[in-house]
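S.,

Sequence below, as promised.
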Amino acid sequence: MRAASVSDYRELARRRLPNIFFEYIDGGSYAETTLARNVADIEAIALRQRVMRDMSKLDMSIETLGQKLAMPVGLAPVGMAGMYASRGEVQAARAAAEVGVPFCLSTVGVCSVEEVAKAGVPPWFQLYMLKDRGYMKSLIERAKALGCPVLVFTVDLPTPGSRYRDIRSGFTGSSGLSGALNTAWDGITHPAWTWDLFTRGRPHTLGSVVGAVTESRRVTDFLSWIARNFDRSVTWADLDWVRETWDGPIVVKGVLDPQDARDAVKAGAQGLVVSNHGGRQLDGVRSSISALPAIADAVGGDLEVYMDGGIRSGLDVLKALALGAKACFVGRAWAYALGAGGQTQVARMLGTLRAELAVAMILTGCATVSEAGRELLDRDG
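The prediction came back faster than expected:
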């Protein structure tokens, strides 16, 4: 099957990936209510179709935090992408650079920040605040030395949400002989993935934090260590601690409330991501798209407002821009594409988003994407 949409990449990834990794990408926390809302609430928004306008020239580019993007889309941090395709973070970063959009590397990526930076454009670097502040400081120093342009500080994970699919699949809570047999069977029944990952994809560690977890052998061991080391004591004052080492732009990721957005401004952040962690943390909260307008109205003039959660097409991107986002970050969309076939498929998926965005712009009369506003929405639709 040749993928025509993000849902097609999802199906291709489902076929190619072992069940434990597909479910890890695809699932949310608890009953997955918020995961479903992220998509459904965007689908419910109607664009306002306009005709007989000169749409012969379109400008999809934006400038943000000192960078010019070819379109208002970036690749959000996704954990363990190197388990979906060999050296997955490197492949995704190359695809993003090819298209002209940013790639944000997760703290829990298989490939280290050094490996990704050496492969092309230094990534935006996503930071989880762990209890080991000495190691966190060294991580920030490494990202800075490599020329990473933006630090993305994720604040909605002081403790991991419970993800039932991961328990059912054996990804978490499975150990001993049963866990080993589960893993072996998944590998045997997915030979293309196994060949790719075990001939070209080693080592299977979490590259950026490997020095802190010397006793671990498997990726799931690293995740267990990180889960034990999330720091619940973090407050806005900790941004001052980060600033002691990092002097570039800081984007706070995981904001759903306007007051938290105002606090991010007071703390000196240069941007924020309206996000509920893709529905993977506190289930039952509102969707990212429904939280976006109030946050954009509250702080949009003071810092850059981005959004992630539920973006499945270029039409969705334009809806988010109309409601106040400067750009959208996609997570599952690129993880599905990577799982479906690596760098080539990620680049194709981004091309699909670009083509869909072009159609949406033309048929709403929006020639310049940076000028997208709420007039593009049909309030009666």
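The mean pLDDT is 93.

Coffee later?
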